[in-house]
Amino acid sequence: MLLSERETLERVLQSVEPLGVENVSIWDSRNRVLARDVIATVALPRFDNSTMDGYAVRAEDAVQGARLVVRGEQAAGLDVGLSVGQGHAIRIFTGAPIPRQADAVVMQEDADLRDGVIFIRDGVTRGENIRVRGGDLCEGQVVASAGSVLTGPKLAAIASQGLGELPVFEVPRVAILATGSELRSQGETINAGQIYETNRIMLADLVAGSGCQGRIFNIVPDTEDAHLESFEQARASDVIVVAGGVSVGEKDLVKPTLLELGAKLDLWRVAVKPGKPFMFGRLGRTLVFGLPGNPVSAFVTFLLFARPGLWKLGGRSSLDLPRARARLAETLANRGERPHYLRGVYAEGFFKAVGRQESHALFALSQANALCRLEPNQVIAADSLVDVIPFFDAAC
Q1: pLDDT at 69 over 80
Q2: Contacts for 347-351 with beta carbons within 8 Å, 24 or more apart?
Q3: Does residue 137 sit in helix, strand or coil?
Q4: Per-residue pLDDT tens over the stretch 250-292
Q5: What does pTM read for this prediction?
Q6: Superfamily of domain 49-131
Q7: 11, 40, 103, 289: which could join 306 in a potential S-S bond, CB 3.0 to 4.6 Å?
Q8: 27-42+140-169 belongs to which homologous superfamily?
Q9: Which residues, listed in sequence order, are joined to residue 69 by a DSSP beta bridge?
């Protein structure tokens, strides 16, 4: 029986729990997943400060044509404790703390300075040209939520709180395998009937893009001993991702090998094209994703099912694949009985299918950057609006 995509993904996610938590230097936390909320203890801005170079004043005094005596200077940095008296002004610079009794800043372009006195050419209103304490971030506010990926801007906001270490989830360790006696590694000589293996390098990129640490294993030939040895070694990882050998042929040894080792397999086949042979289970504490050997099928099933599972294992709270709205550049049709993910190019708001759509068409996949899903026996007319799944996401 073929499982639906939804049931397949639900079973995967129900079986996954995030790994443990460790504290790391904030400088080493880029692209890690935050394990606990960061709550602000420092307001942003921390104090009222000037948005530009000029003169701190009382707004009621700084009307057009007024004359104000300059009594001191406040630069950015240490607050020197100045106060603005009636009829006075303080020379101030961008980012400097606002002196007491001041409630506005006159831009230096709007005042003429002569002999310690400024002449106001354009008046100000209360609060003008002042960044108010806590206007961006208040104490008690959530700076970053648990489960979020720590990218540059988020880390900058956290850094404003003075934290030197952050609690983050451990990085999942993923063993990457490919099976098949016909496969050879790059640099080796190939003979008739043999091909160069391509899935491991593709999967290594997908694993890294999922926030995980991959380890590439040697090609596994179609023998029982080789399968047993490879899976015994790979089970030390948090996850095993294996391409090939998950169908029902005599040489498809992944499933029987895992069962012999005591694995519990939760699902085997899914109603999706490309990628019907897809396996998921556990070998002890190690998650196992069995992907088809055809590269496009391996790519699609990894994206749809393995990536959300790895995201959850790594602690991410958002598990939805990125989506974009696109207009079809041509009519697309699915004449089959399974949902079909067509590969194509998404650019300037349009999606166009590219190349051959067979599960072995690696070059066509290399020219694509998005998937478009068609229901069974569905035809979508050109110029229709559809959802597409971009392959690459800066938040992966």
Answers
A1: yes
A2: 349/325, 350/326, 351/326, 351/327, 351/386, 351/388
A3: strand
A4: 678 999 999 999 999 988 889 999 988 899 999 999 999 999 9
A5: 0.89
A6: Molybdopterin biosynthesis moea protein, domain 3. (2.170.190.11)
A7: 289
A8: Molybdopterin biosynthesis moea protein, domain 2 (3.90.105.10)
A9: 88, 117
